[in-house]
Amino acid sequence: xxxxxxxxxxxxxxxxxxxxxxxxxxxxxxxxxxxxxxxxxxxxxxxxxxxxxxxxxxxxxxxxxxxxxxxxxxxxxxxxxxxxxxxxxxxxxxxxxxxxxxxxxxxxxxxxxxxxxxxxxxxxxxxxxxxxxxxxxxxxxxxxxxxxxxxxxxxxxxxxxxxxxxxxxxxxxxxxxxxxxxxxxxxxxxxxxxxxxxxxxxxxxxxxxxxxxxxxxxxxxxxxxxxxxxxxxxxxxxxxxxxxxxxxxxxxxxxxxxxxxxx
Amino acid sequence: xxxxxxxxxxxxxxxxxxxxxxxxxxxxxxxxxxxxxxxxxxxxxxxxxxxxxxxxxxxxxxxxxxxxxxxxxxxxxxxxxxxxxxxxxxxxxxxxxxxxxxxxxxxxxxxxxxxxxxxxxxxxxxxxxxxxxxxxxxxxxxxxxxxxxxxxxxxxxxxxxxxxxxxxxxxxxxxxxxxxxxxxxxxxxxxxxxxxxxxxxxxxxxxxxxxxxxxxxxxxxxxxxxxxxxxxxxxxxxxxxxxxxxxxxxxxxxxxxxxxxxxxxxxxxxxxxxxxxxxxxxxxxxxxxxxxxxxxxxxxxxxxxxxxxxxxxxxxxxxxxxxxxxxxxxxxxxxxxxxxxxxxxxxxxxxxxxxxxxxxxxxxxxxxxxxxxxxxxxxxxxxxxxxxxxxxxxxxxxxxxxxxxxxxxxxxxxxxxxxxxxxxxxxxxxxxxxxxxxxxxxxxxxxxxxxxxxxxxxxxxxxxxxxxxxxxxxxxxxxxxxxxxxxxxxxxxxxxxxxxxxxxxxxxxxxxxxxxxxxxxxxxxxxxxxxxxxxxxxxxxxxxxxxxxxxxxxxxxxxxxxxxxxxxxxxxxxxxxxxxxxxxxxxxxxxxxxxxxxxxxxxxxxxxxxxxxxxxxxxxxxxxxxxxxxxxxxxxxxxxxxxxxxxxxxxxxxxxxxxxxxxxxxxxxxxxxxxxxxxxxxxxxxxxxxxxxxxxxxxxxxxxxxxxxxxxxxxxxxxxxxxxxxxxxxxxxxxxxxxxxxxxxxxxxxxxxxxxxxxxxxxxxxxxxxxxxxxxxxxxxxxxxxxxxxxxxxxxxxxxxxxxxxxxxxxxxxxxxxxxxxxxxxxxxxxxxxxxxxxxxxxxxxxxxxxxxxxxxxxxxxxxxxxxxxxxxxxxxxxxxxxxxxxxxxxxxxxxxxxxxxxxxxxxxxxxxxxxxxxxxxxxxxxxxxxxxxxxxxxxxxxxxxxxxxxxxxxxxxxxxxxxxxxxxxxxxxxxxxxxxxxxxxxxxxxxxxxxxxxxxxxxxxxxxxxxxxxxxxxxxxxxxxxxxxxxxxxxxxxxxxxxxxxxxxxxxxxxxxxxxxxxxxxxxxxxxxxxxxxxxxxxxxxxxxxxxxxxxxxxxxxxxxxxxxxxxxxxxxxxxxxxxxxxxxxxxxxxxxxxxxxxxxxxxxxxxxxxxxxxxxxxxxxxxxxxxxxxxxxxxxxxxxxxxxxxxxxxxxxxxxxxxxxxxxxxxxxxxxxxxxxxxxxxxxxxxxxxxxxxxxxxxxxxxxxxxxxxxxxxxxxxxxxxxxxxxxxxxxxxxxxxxxxxxxxxxxxxxxxxxxxxxxxxxxxxxxxxxxxxxxxxxxxxxxxx
DNA sequence: CCACTAAATACTGATATAAGTAATAGAAAATAT
DNA sequence: ATATTTTCTACCGACAATATCAGTATTTAGAGC
Lengths: 263, 1332
Fold this sequence. Notes:
Region (Disordered) (chain B): 237-266, 1272-1296
CATH class of the largest domain in chain A: Alpha Beta
Catalytic activity (chain B): RNA(n) + a ribonucleoside 5'-triphosphate = RNA(n+1) + diphosphate
Protein name (chain B): DNA-directed RNA polymerase
Family (chain B): Belongs to the phage and mitochondrial RNA polymerase family.
Main location (chain B): mitochondrion
Shape of chain A: globular
Number of strands of chain B: 26
Oligomer: heterodimer
Number of strands of chain A: 5
Low-confidence stretches of chain A: none
């Protein structure tokens, strides 16, 4: 997908003719950064029609792959898995992505680690992810959890053998089905992870006025003593459930700071 | 305890002064050996390498603390080091809480610092002794003094003697031996008796009497008082302004202790003056009548009435010879003084005002001192009322709820304060982790918090928290940082007022006031008191440190959060049952903005919606309301405005440098004070008729003019299903964000309007004043927020001059013109404007008669509320048989037409420009915007004719409005991008989305070009100012700044900000510097704040961008203040909003003349030349970092010299080394010693090589351009043979070759001032549209 | 009482947080090479 | 020292990101004399 005319022309006139016989590439005059261009790709022109498959398994004939330099984009992809929209509307479409090492460390972080942050809870909740390959880079290797390394057993390649790729890690994302309220889930996880090393009996209060008082009656004591960064996605789901049963929860869960920009 | 680390750090610091000494000692016999010696020294110092005790000693802040801004000014950028400031602050609070041991240990720490930091230690000691002495026995006192003296640390002064003597006197001990030095003439009695605050009036009198001292020894301000007995017949007239005699004045002491004294009985029988009494409950009652903030004010005002000394009332009536009744026993009924005043015959008015003033003196005192208690009383009162009625409305009444909070919170606060007092006695070992953390935090803030009264603390915390609702872009809540700061700022303010009050009480303690029944004596007494207060206030120099403030704020807020509860209800999702319960009113939470985490204190939706449903949005800072009497006149930088708080004349922007400058020039600012006092002395009242209309509309809750609708709650568009395309979801989010923003801003504007109305309501019928101060450029602003004449159309429409003047024929004409202006007819000749009103005179009458029913006309005005006010006034006049006899209170405005450009045009002498902004005489008013639009159109026509597609599309769409904002902001230095956005906004509706922006970009360029053409001279000046600012903020002072850290890697640090003085001698310091903030731990969260006492590198970009507009504003501010003084001298009422000047209709002509004359006077001098001279002086000896061509002659010389130095040093020479050498040269040159000067002259440095070079040639645009051109050519060549596909890539390839440039320091030399055009400012005299 | 060490605490600085990079242009500052 | 990337884009009234962690500096506790 390329929508810059000049570059498109170059690809079309010069690059594509040079490709080996029988290649499987198709060039489209579209902007890969525009969500809607994908709709046009899959609906209107029928260029790409993987067909819908149920969510009890991975999509069998559609794979999305790419090197995503921009971390925000990766996060967007993750949220597409959560929302089951965009390409994920065809089913649980596997995504095989090269992403920056630093992002990989964050996203793959396990509970109870220093790196544990909201995005890794997202990953854990909405997909099964596997570390496929990562460069032999001391800094990022150290940051990956040992458990993770032994479980996923990634290929650890010599960064020198791929000069450009040395900053990127290959991860396989396999989306999972779920039926969570995205806004509420996001709110709960966000507020709790804001102070991720504060025991729940305190940090729960960020969810609403005297929230902890309510939770205390609903959740086991040992959970109450835990700190958010040590919680698993399942525990978050549980907390969400409790939160949603709370009569006095705040009305608006997506408030933002508005900066009064004057005329 | 002060951390000993901090102390050690200070002790280790080698002050710059010491270094200078060291260098000065370098004496050498010949120039060459001098050079050699210096080289040796350089080697030794070995800049950039790690010699122990040299490089590492100083942190950045330490290096820059205590520096003169420039040698020219002799003003310290930073008065004292951070540590000293902190210690002083701590010393103050320890003394206030009588912790003498701790105070002594602070003194011990301070002493060594006093030597380094060059402050006088004895002052601090005296402070201590003065607090200690009253509580100690004479022997103890003497022992302490002797002790300190013998340690060699203390040299006592006259004040020390005064303290000792006073202590002995008070304890009836003999004190004569301390008088000996004075009696014997070895010491001056004056210096002893100057310490009136130590002695107090009574002892001062005693000491004079007992020793038969010459009265001349007593400071002049107090002599009269001391001698009351001796010469009652003294004919010396005491000039008496409205000086406040405080509540501690002997005549009224009894009233100060309580605000709940019984209501005043009805004084006289009949209520003949029906119109004079406004029953506010029955009058246009605001729905928001429950607004407790306002009740606070009203209650405060009202509660004073019972306190009213009946004598005063008698005086009232005595003077008027007629009995008036103002007060009934209905506490909600308040006198409408304005109606009384108006109803009086002219000859009685003065007397009435005199009486009113005396009356208001009392009320003002109470307003400033009692409003906090009043709030508390009000809550309690309402609570009890409801309880008595057995009402179920308890939860509905906010005040009752607040009382509940208060009752719960106050004991906790008291406990906390108690813990603070005992903080040193706690056994640390007994504490567990959390308690220990709490304890160690408490230790830091305890000395401050323990000084406060728990009741006041509680009330203030509650008020501030409610006041902050919906601020900071949070719809239901506030930012934590803001909340904690605002609470503690309010506390500090209150504490200071209290201190002033107490000092004052102390001062008059035991004073025999039997003689004060004599009015003359009373006047003397209050004069002295006022003088005394000035002295006290000037002396207060210590502030609570920022980090302490946030800690205190957060502790108190935590307590409040803990107790403040509201009743809530919600639906249980599972059972669908309605559940009731109690929940905290506040909770702490976070929100993210672009990944930045922001701490939020949310107000519970129940409370928040109660607040908005009841149209009650908060409380008013009761300390800064409009004043009932003339503000305390400005007499120094921190003396003026309110009577019981310290107000700074400049709104400092956390800049110690600004503070230092304003302090230093405090006694040269009479012209500024004069002008400012004129503004403050303008009396106002509320336009009741407009107010009635407004409140009627307000109560509907509907949108009306600039009042937004009262949203009940925010309704969001339906959430799209989560599986929608991300683009759909994003769109929805954007929509939601927009709605939330609108909701938040609507809410805050409604809030704001509510404040305005409520304050106006409280001041209905009152005579009041707005105390003013200045922003750092010298522009004046009313100190009281929300409701003032500088606010929106709404507030302006509500304000009338208290004083009325007969309108006369001319005045009537001006009133009409004013009305036309308000309708937006302000570009037509005056006659046409007048005609516009005459043509619509029926509409005027109808609108005035019933504004609500006939709203279609006046609401269409540009400024509808002011138009309505004017309409009413005009209609009143027309009702009279002779309209010219109408007494008008309506302010009439004269606005500068693009005032910034007027000043620019005058400075640049642009003839055409001057004409366009009405400096030059003309038959009809010129409109710059129209003119620029015309110019632009012409240009576009031409370009279109040449086949320019953009121009063709645009040429018929250039309206005045399209260019207006850009022309206006051009003065402020708007950039291309900014202007493009502005124009884009205007073109959006005309062109399609995708065309619009491209066209805007094109149009912006044309507009800029046209502006430049029209105001050529002005733009040259603008550029010149910007260049100067840039050069200055990129220059270094070699004698102090930055050479230390100029090692091989480091860049020099630029510390010089742009500083200038206005024609009124007000020093302006641009505060733009790097912002360095730190996270401070508090109870709730960390808070990210900067320490206002630290100085950092200048922000050159901002300095440059802001200097031209700031300079112009400093001029228009001067013009305004001069005009104010001038108008006041002529007896005109005067008010101003920057470039809009207000007076009575009948005086417009005279005012116009005044402001023309002052403008001419201002520009009589070549202000730019004056500025250049000032800069040249101020920044003399500064160096600038420039780049010169490698190959120039000097360049070669410098290279050679560097090579030489490098070989001599045995290491690469650095810029720092060069600065060092230059500095030595300067030291020699300025030494005053002929020998040394000769040596200096023979010395050659890299800088001196450049001294006589024309830097312009070296760095000129031409030289650089020619280099760039040749490079560009090469680039083009290389591009020629690229094919079209690779073009993009090729373009990005870096240019390999670049001009060889040499970085060197050269003397700072500002460019010559641009030539001036031919316009003569004296022509202005005949321009009638200058202001209109 | 002192000098000493180890443990505890305090202070500092770095980093992540959220989550489309992009409507445009051009200089200056900051950072990377 | 030079090249690339990032930042910023109209003045004033009117300031505000925070939690956590690692590493270092400083203080304190404690044992021993």
